[in-house]
């Protein structure tokens, strides 16, 4: 079914529902382990590809459109998904996938704290990621700092270890200006989007003021007390958002 083998899969390919999970910058497909297990329990077959520049995949073009185009093989022969979930950079990539979605299939997009606009802050974010790959924290340091499960900390370290400064520099330099909120303006009638934004008091890159208002089939929820890594900190909220979207479709 899938042209690329740089991906992780969970569950049975014959499951009644399918989900595509897209990781964020310096992440990897394995980072979805916790969320994927929850989705399998809900009857999903789960596929999580590795983005260009991650998990040792090399690339030269890191424009958002190129990152999305690289995932086109996951939609061959009208392959469809009930749910597509993207975290951070993966959320913005997921928005860029809208033209690839089969028009006969109702699809829910769940975007986890996606970076939509980054004017003056873009260099700050770039420096943070460059430092992350240059000074990789240990599992124990992440457990102490964030309180994530040991499993999620191990997988976070794995993802960062398989990414380098070339990818970081490419993603930021090839996407100037960083402005993607306009992608919300053409949501197809068969697609519903939910944005789960982190609490600004804890740390968010998705500002609610950057999300267009009065857009049909677009729902926004701020998760109080939850930081940027929603997939680690509050995976149940993701499952709840899927179930809520299904009742509204």
Low-confidence stretches: none
Distance between the termini: 27 Å
**What strand order characterises the main sheet?**
1-3-2-4-5-8-9
Write down the overall mean pLDDT.
Answer: 94
Query: What is the beta-strand fraction?
Result: 15-25%
The value of Rg in angstroms is: 17 Å
**Overall SS class:** alpha/beta
The assembly state of the depicted protein chains is single chain
How many extended strands? 9
Number of helices: 9
Helix content: 25-40%
**Rough shape?**
globular
Would you give an account of this structure?
The protein is an alpha/beta fold and 249 residues long. 33% of the residues lie in helices and 18% in strands. The protein contains nine helices and nine strands. A seven-stranded mixed beta sheet has the order 1-3-2-4-5-8-9. It has a two-stranded antiparallel sheet with strand order 6-7. Helix 4 (122-134) packs antiparallel against helix 7. It starts with 6 loop residues before the first strand and ends with a helix. The mean pLDDT is 94.
State the main characteristics.
seven-stranded mixed beta sheet, 249 residues, alpha/beta, two-stranded antiparallel ribbon, 9 helices
């Amino acid at each position: 079914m899938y042209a690329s083998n740089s991906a992780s899969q969970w569950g049975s390919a014959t499951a009644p529902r399918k989900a595509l999970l897209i990781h964020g910058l310096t992440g990897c497909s394995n980072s979805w382990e916790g969320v994927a297990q929850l989705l399998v329990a809900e009857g999903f077959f789960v596929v999580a590809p590795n983005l260009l520049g991650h998990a040792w995949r090399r690339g030269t073009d890191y424009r958002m459109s190129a990152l999305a185009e690289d995932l086109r093989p996951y939609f061959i022969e009208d392959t469809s998904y009930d749910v597509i979930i993207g975290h951070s950079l993966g959320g913005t990539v997921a928005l860029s996938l809208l033209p690839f979605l089969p028009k006969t299939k109702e699809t829910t997009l769940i975007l986890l704290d996606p970076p939509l606009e980054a004017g003056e802050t873009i260099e700050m974010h770039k420096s943070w990621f460059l430092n992350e790959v240059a000074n990789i924290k240990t599992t124990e340091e992440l457990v102490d700092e964030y309180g994530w499960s040991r499993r999620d900390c191990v997988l976070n370290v794995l993802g960062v270890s398989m990414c380098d400064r070339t990818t970081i520099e490419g993603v930021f330099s090839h996407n100037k200006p960083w402005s993607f909120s306009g992608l919300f303006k053409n949501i197809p009638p068969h697609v519903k989007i939910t944005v789960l934004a982190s609490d600004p008091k804890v740390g968010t890159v998705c500002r609610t003021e950057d999300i267009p208002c009065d857009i049909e089939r677009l729902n926004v929820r701020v998760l109080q007390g939850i930081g940027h890594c929603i997939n680690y900190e509050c995976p149940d909220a993701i499952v709840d958002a899927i179930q809520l979207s299904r009742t509204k479709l």
